[in-house]
């Protein structure tokens, strides 16, 4: 009988020393990691600010894009539906009453549509727009009115003709940008939008959505909806009701389109287009500065950039609005103060979180050290290196049997009777269960108790495959294949003799030996596998797991 009293004192003394060292080292490691984290955070702060900037600007951009879709999707849908209706109705420029009854309700429902146009390849055109609470139409028909003449008509809100007149004009529908683009629409792109241009009647910049079809006489019809840029800019600017973001429209060559103020102030020249100023000149100058910075720096689209004005930093991004096929850009600007406000609002929370993390780490360290102090010994050897197999085996033989190492002469042959015996297999299976329930270990089969290498020839296996199959069957029958990932069998030779090396890892849950309809629980105590009673198993499991 091996006494555990003296070794137990040594273990406890060693665990106490290791506990103190481990506590000290973990605390130092925690403070080192926190220091590294703080230093890293300091040098990485600009990158963090950049990430926040990207997030905020991207959110502002998505707001603008979403609002733009909400503006134009209904227009595009109505334009598509109206084209189908016009084809079925066989609409032409002479059906003024039918035209008005169809499109006045649409324009009242969608006020962002400033005018509707129907034109043909024969030079006819009918144009309808708002005027002082009434409706103004323009009819161009060279065959009826002659060349260089147009007919104007003013309609009430109830579509009743109020007055009409003719006047000289050099207006020609087929020379307008929307007409040329309308001819290019197809099945893949049934609706297209023009680049910004000046409307003929309103004399203000805008874009036009167009579609076309042909009737049975091969006459081409073009249906167009006009939308002013000031209306688009006004709608997009309303996205910023809860933030200090600034949004605006810009043409690809740098012309700025802002929502009109009250009263509208116009700046710029006819060659550069009109700039609509909302009222706060400081805000507008920030917009001008962002566009100038974007042009002079030759920045790419959808790239966040910064500029400084009066000692204040601003971030902006210019991007294309896909509705117009890169013919109109939008810009968003965010003051950096807003970014700092977001960081400052969270700085107390961040510092509190770090302090709580330090406290929690120290508490957990103390708990873990106390819980595992009894296990803080040198890690037992539970595997060998196959690259240096011979030296590894000789080293194990010199160590002799221990809590993590055991020798067995055979795998199944009882050397006393000369017959295969189940008791031989159960003996080394007990050892494996004991290893898994304690610290793990190594079992050498083919080595006697005195560390002499015998080999396993006495087991009379035909080949290695038979050994592996027999080993697997025993594991499945007496331990369970769910534990097979913890057990590794090595078959190798030393001194021209075949031996078995079974590496066994510690299990994270109780492991039992199933034998003759019973379940037995073993642990390692010194070089022996000890069976525990049910009461001791419960106590052992409670303390271990």
Spell out the key features of this protein.
545 residues; alpha+beta; Beta-Lactamase; 11 helices; elongated; disordered N terminus
In short:
By secondary structure, this protein is α+β, with helices and mostly antiparallel strands.
CATH superfamily of the largest domain: Schlafen, AAA domain
* CATH C-level name of the largest domain: Alpha Beta
From the spread of the alpha carbons, the general shape counts as elongated
Mean pLDDT: 81
Question: How many separate domains make up the residues?
Answer: 3
Q: Spans with pLDDT under 50 lasting ≥5 residues?
A: 1-18, 261-281
Strand content: 15-25%
Largest sheet: 9 strands, antiparallel
Radius of gyration (Å): 44 Å
**What's the end-to-end separation, in Å?**
28 Å
Helix percent band: 40-55%
Number of strands: 26
Quickly give the CATH architecture of the largest domain: 2-Layer Sandwich
- CATH fold name of the largest domain, please? Methyltransferase, Cobalt-precorrin-4 Transmethylase, Domain 2
Number of helices: 11
Would you tell me the structural class of the helices and strands? alpha+beta
